[in-house]
Hints:
Oligomer: heterodimer
Mean pLDDT of chain B: 94
CATH architecture of chain A: Sandwich
Helix content of chain A: under 10%
Structural class of chain B: mainly beta
Largest sheet of chain A: 6 strands, mixed
Structural class of chain A: mainly beta
Number of strands of chain B: 11
Largest interface: A-B, 25 and 27 residues
Number of helices of chain B: 0
Mean pLDDT of chain A: 95
Amino acid sequence: xxxxxxxxxxxxxxxxxxxxxxxxxxxxxxxxxxxxxxxxxxxxxxxxxxxxxxxxxxxxxxxxxxxxxxxxxxxxxxxxxxxxxxxxxxxxxxxxxxxxxxxxxxxxxxx
Amino acid sequence: xxxxxxxxxxxxxxxxxxxxxxxxxxxxxxxxxxxxxxxxxxxxxxxxxxxxxxxxxxxxxxxxxxxxxxxxxxxxxxxxxxxxxxxxxxxxxxxxxxxxxxxxxxxxxxxxxxx
Lengths: 111, 115
């Protein structure tokens, strides 16, 4: 039973356009959310996080939006660059070390 | 500065054999995590150590899996006996944060194939 779902296994976007990666969760007790990025043959690296007291957090080209009523978060990358091509994992926690990860979305940015 | 180091990077073994995966966390980090990644289930937490003590092993799938952290700079994950369904990528991660949320730094992973 997946508590964190990334329903799109893959996404292709043209360079310079916006990439939107989506994530849904089922447990309303989750109050801290993260996105990790993973390149082939490397471990995941932290990208951005958001607490449930916020609905938006920005870091450069990356913005995470949280819709608590819909139990949905999204990662926007603007503008997308070829170096952004990777697998993106969302994760959720109840303010503890215990992250529940989704299965990942493979983003391909086309030059 | 070195990140999390894992060895071996790839392991191919036959069913029934013992497998030992190794991890060296980032120096100064007091939390260590072992994860397993599969296509179907994504990244799953297997076990969490804080200050070398196992705090949460609820994710360890069976008694065939065991993990140790004899000191602050070394941890092992052992599978005995291994089975084909154990084939996955195993990640070790470490963190400065004890107990709460915070950035976890992942190693490059060990790709395990059990024939």
